[in-house]
Fold these 4 entries.
Entry 1:
Amino acid sequence: MGLLRIFLRVIFLGVLGVVFLTTQGEVAETADIEVNVTLQTISVSVTSNGTWNMGMVGVGSTTTMANNQKITILNDGNGSQTYTLQVTNTGGPWTASSTESNGQDKFVLSGVFSATADTGVVGANFNTGTNDDVIKSTDPKTATTENYAAETNATANGVSVSAGEARALWLQFKAPSSSTVNTQQTIAVTIGVIGG
């Protein structure tokens, strides 16, 4: 019986030795990796014509920015970004329409992005075909190849604008069909950015 016990102990230790050596061999084979991360800085600035002074307009009339009035926007972040637009202050009793229809104390403000060198964006370029260029007050709307984009006369839009690139923003204003006030109204539009 004494011999049998010794024999079993040797087998048991031998199996442990094999497992131990295999485990040791796997651990010895390692490699390191590096993870480098740069956070995207999202930033936009208005570099020219931050105010559009339309002056006096007629009830129900439509006014579109001229070439010398277009607003220049610069992506001064470090990656590509897409723009959003939202009416954030309507200037008193007036409200911003969410459709192309104006009404009493309700105006329509639309926007189109283009390359800064584009000079031919005109009234006919707004809200055409499937394009929805109306700037809403309810929430920011993101530029796409159809939203805030002209079908003709524009060589760029507000989508995936590279770092350091500028875009022009053209606005079109459709006055209320009637108004309870006849004093100057100030409307604020917020330009937002989304990375990518």
Note: Strands lie at 44-48, 62-64, 71-75, 81-89, 95-96, 106-114, 141-142, 166-174, 188-195.
Entry 2:
Amino acid sequence: MKNVVISEMNKTNKAFKTHTLAKQGSPLQATPDNLYKVTVDGVELTPKNASFKKSKGHLLVEKDGELIVDLDYSKSGTAIDLLVSDGWVSVENIDTTAGIASTTGELETADPAVDAGGDEDESRSTALGFGGLGLLGAAGGAAALAHDGGDDHSAAPGAPTAPVLAPASDGGAKGDGLTNDNTPTLTGRGKAGATVTVYDGATSIGTATVQPDGTWSCTPTTLLGEGVHTLTAKQYGSSGDLSSPSPPLTITIDTVAPPPPTAAPTSYVDNVGAVQSPTSTAPTTDDTTPGFNIGSLPSGVAGAVLYVDGVEVEADYNNGVLTPVSQLGPGAHTIGFGYADAAGNASISSPTMSIRVDTPTQPPPQPAPTTAPTSYIDNIGPEQNSKSTAATTDDPTPGINIGTLPDNVTGAVLYVDGARVPATYDPTTGAITPTSPLGGGAHTIGYGYVGPNGTSATSPTMSIRVDTTTPPQPPPTAAPTSYIDNV
């Protein structure tokens, strides 16, 4: 069932009261001279977001195809017609014996003559549309009601719009009317240059001037007490005439925090590193955003807050776990938590648990070999050697002798001219051989180790020149001394 609240205002003395339906769609006996506004789950219904239909002395208010409330005028004893202005419902006596007992119809919409807060031609107070039933603009509705009462409002400004809680003062869920700010800032719209007075019931709590863009903002000069308050606004025109009141804003002031938890968190969720646990009690963790297990929230508690070293920090609560949004710094911390209510009030911290955040430091780099290779395997050409130290070779893939790898080393890499190149290490020969042929010319050759801390830089280097060109055949050293004559 939706939360249905009907606000009722006496048009004569401006007194307010509210009705809460025990059952959605229930009838409410209506008084012809009063105004009514219907709110569903905190949203005011108007002809823009709901349907207003009259049927046999009743006004049926529907939203999304559901009957919300039945305003019953059938016992008023007089023929009436209905007026609706921005969701405020009233009735008007009409000169007819037919009344509305046998008519049904849906409100028709007419464009407002002016924006909220402007003046309205009294001729617009005539109800528009079906059977004299219609929708007037915000100011037009005010003029129609004034006309019904017989007063001349031609010089008075229209009513300002209903006050609204400024976002910074809306401590609960947005739009629920619940706040922990007892001097909440209120905003609204009115006639540029007019002076707006805000009332808590019949008591003035502050004034503001409507800005050129039609907006006003007012912060009460006195504290509002705990509980429900019905706030309205009126504006004075340049001639000093006072408007009728705006539609009301009902808010609840709640500045009392819930009692704090009595026990400290005893475990946390650790999702980082080699040792992880959903209920860790270890005094040290490498998880910089551990989720603290605080359990289910008690009845009446809307949320939880996290205290780190006595300071409230932003945190997310989910399924009994409260997790900081930002990382905890390294070192020791005290961790507590508190309860929050729907108005945004947070309790003080529970008793605390201690935890130390110790993130692993970057391991030192793998040590590089300290000596250069001194020989190589040459398997090409007329001069081959498994431990060649010649400065030049015709083998483009010489095997560089680096020996047996140390115990803590798992592999080797080859560096040619300072750059790592693909190579294969043979543990039998102790040599590392480039996969691709080296280019012709001079090269520096080094090697590195692969171990638990990664790959090392290069060792000191040896120099070697690769020359794969074929040398020219040397000329004979003696002249010919004879010849064969066959003729």
Note: The two ends are 133 Å apart (CA to CA).
Entry 3:
Amino acid sequence: MNIKERFANIEDPRHQSYAEHKLCDVLTIVMCAVMSGLDRLSDIVMYAENRVSLFSEKFGITAIPSKPTFSRILNMTDGEKAGVVILEIMRENFELLGDIIAVDGKAIRSTSEKGKAHSALQILTAYLTESGITLAQKSIHEKTNEIPVFQEILETLDVKEKTITADAMHCQKETCKKIIKRGGNYCFGLKENQKTFYNDVKLFIENPPNQDSLGVFTAPAEKGHGRVETRRCYKVHDISWLENRQEWAGLKTIFAVEHIVETKHKTTKEMNYYISSLAETPEKLMQITRAHRKTESLYWILDVVFSEDECRLKSEESNKTLNSFRKLAILAHRTYIKSNKLKIKKRIFLPFATSKTYVISSPGGSITTTPIIIPAYPLHVVQPVAPVEFWLGKEIPVADSRRGYSRNGRGRKICAPVGRMSQSAEHRRL
């Protein structure tokens, strides 16, 4: 089943007698535009108009909708159903690697109502950390919270022999019970929402006489950006002293991870506590907690690269759909870079250029110059071009980005996009 056939399974809410553009055509165009790093409707329309021949040849799309039509259709389309189809595309076309599923929520700030801090659309994501595939996602209603939504997601996931990680909000007895019953394992943060449990664990680990009974692993120090960061994991070997431990299904391990950050001016320490159903070494437990933080990287890209929190579309349905497309784009780019063993050798910054050029090295060692399609992709390394339909091996149309760069408050150059010029403004500059 090809992409258009997938999108055709989504119910079109419009009266078909008046529908000039098929829903599957509109979603296909939006997908290609988002894969090219575009996140505004005006840019999506310009992109589509400049790629008419490509859409006609590859997808049989001959008519390009207007900006109001794009907006109206995205606002009407069920974002949950569209997300299901997009996640199916991810699972079927990319390899499912790894056994750690990180579950975390993110709010899209642009959807919040003035004066209502908690009215923003929130999306809870189940993220396979090694391969970068979103296995499931569900929106969180304003009148509820992540806990019941997380438990609903668990019913749809195959968690057998997988490890589910989440923050302290999901450190709940019922959640642990559901995971163990379905054959999975868990590793949850522990904070004061479980106050008695938290105080007991904290007191035991920090009590000097108990230090000899702890397993300790210290990771190699990481240096960069003017600081040295050291991580140390403390595992409690025997938890028989812990009261009410039988109430927590499958509980085998309690541990803590200490973060020590040294800079020129000060040293800071932070201790985070965890519970787990895994009887692993301190080193493995630390790796699991670090894998969970990959969701933060995903959300950072959504906010900075795709400007998700600045999206001008206010409808929750349109934001759900675009959120799924953005996750697909990030996955395709990362997979393309990894599979082709591309490595950035040099970055060339061209303020307000219509395309960005990066010098990369191929596996054979040759140097090539490639235009990037996600402008200012600000990861730890800048990402090169990837195909729109990576799984089909098609060639991507490169988008005109009109992105620029700015400096932050300390004068450091950053890659974050800071706005665009209008078409007439760019013509005047040229």
Note: Residues 344-430 have pLDDT under 50 and may be disordered.
Entry 4:
Amino acid sequence: MLWCRRIRQIKGTVPRCRLRFSIAADQEYDILVTIDCDGQHEPQRILKFVEMCIETGADVVSGSRYLRSFDEDSPPPEQRRLINHQVTKILNQRMGFEITDAFCGFKAYRVESLVGIQLSENGLRNAIGIMGAGSLP
């Protein structure tokens, strides 16, 4: 079953994540896909993200605006790309990831891995921390 909900009334990345995670857990969904609707991602790839999450058993499948370019993609602002590159490098070093876009707004989460994650701050630091939550012991 595919369920879609647009969350506009809640401001801030972390409050929206809290709501998304809560709904997915309450509804007992297996996979939660989040996608920003800013033209930088391809919605037709949603099912591929779900398949990757299921097939690999990954807690998080993260998209990337930098790994490969698609004709339909619109580029992010240069300053944002530079900051993203720096943060992505730090996350990869500290968490052992091999991601190319820490701020990508297109992700699939295995819902059972989200249970118990406490998001207490409304800042970007906590939102980025979600990326490592599934790999913590």
Note: Strands lie at 31-35, 60-62, 106-110.
